[in-house]
Write a structure and sequence with these properties.
45% of the residues lie in helices and 15% in strands. A seven-stranded parallel sheet has the order 3-2-1-4-5-6-7, sandwiched between helices. It is built from nine helices and seven strands, in the order αβαβαβαβαβαβαααβ. Helix 2 packs across helix 9 and helix 5 runs parallel beside helix 6. Strand 5, helix 6 and strand 6 form a beta-alpha-beta unit. By secondary structure, the chain is α/β, with parallel strands linked by helices.
């Protein structure tokens, strides 16, 4: 079982690590014995994370990147590769949402969501993949959304970008699976984080979401740890192009 599910010693580059889901993932990988390099936008938040994870297990490091800048993304990958030695698993768990009516959305707001959620996801995967292909081994895990499948409400830019992440995952998988690289995706359901507080702080919408969840509860960031570690392990070697919903039963209702 250890050879199948164990990831001790694996080198993991993870984005979004200072967010609600991302911080749970960082701790989960470290506790599993992986070495984690976290890509963060905020130096101060990254330093807080460094102190938090200093005694958790594995080795923790971080690099700073601005996902609105293509050059910053690529430079951060180079720094992370140097820090880790190589990248065995890339977890793209970042994302931004700027909710509001589509009729009021500015082009800048639209572009920022497409750039961060979709374009940066592509460019980071594109930067990491060649070495994985050369080794014929590697895991790339994107983070999709329930809005990869549905349109949502007042989140046109976010829905479009996350719909793109789902298709991108399948497209990259089709190209890289023959070279030993697994590209799969996690689609979180309604997880209580800062990103979707506009939903759970609205009493009517929070009630409506809860009524559809067959699990009877909103998700916690920790609910994403097991599925993500699974996709990074040898147990998932024959999974390619999968979008795995971790949604408390939302889609089945």
């Amino acid at each position: 079982m250890e050879s199948l599910f164990g990831i001790s010693g694996s080198k993991v580059l993870l984005t979004g690590g200072t967010g609600g889901i991302g911080s749970a993932l960082v701790e989960g990988f470290l506790r599993a014995g992986a070495d984690v390099c976290m890509m963060a936008r905020d130096e101060q938040a990254a330093e807080i994370s460094e102190a938090k994870y200093s005694n958790v297990g594995g080795n923790f490091s971080y690099v700073i990147a601005d996902f609105l800048s293509d050059g910053s993304c690529l430079s951060a990958v180079a720094q992370a590769t140097k820090a880790l030695g190589q990248i065995d698993t890339l977890v793209l768990a970042h994302g931004n949402a700027m909710p509001g009516p589509a009729t009021d959305m500015t082009l800048d707001t639209w572009s920022a969501q497409i750039q961060v959620n979709l374009t940066a996801t592509f460019r980071l995967a594109q930067a990491v993949a060649p070495e994985m292909i050369k080794r014929r081994s590697g895991k790339i895990i994107t983070y999709a959304s329930m809005l990869t499948f549905q349109g949502g409400l007042n989140v046109a830019g976010y829905a479009a970008s996350k719909g793109g992440v789902g298709q991108l995952t399948k497209a990259l998988s089709n190209e890289w699976a023959p070279h030993g690289v697994n590209v799969n995706s996690i689609a979180p359901g309604y997880i209580k984080t800062k990103l979707n507080q506009h939903v759970w702080k609205d009493p009517e919408r929070e009630k409506a979401v809860l009524a559809r969840l067959t699990s009877g509860r909103w998700g916690n960031p920790e609910d994403l740890v097991g599925p993500t570690l699974f996709l990074s392990s040898h147990a998932a070697d024959y999974l390619h192009g999968v979008i795995l919903p971790v949604d408390g039963g939302w889609l089945s209702r």
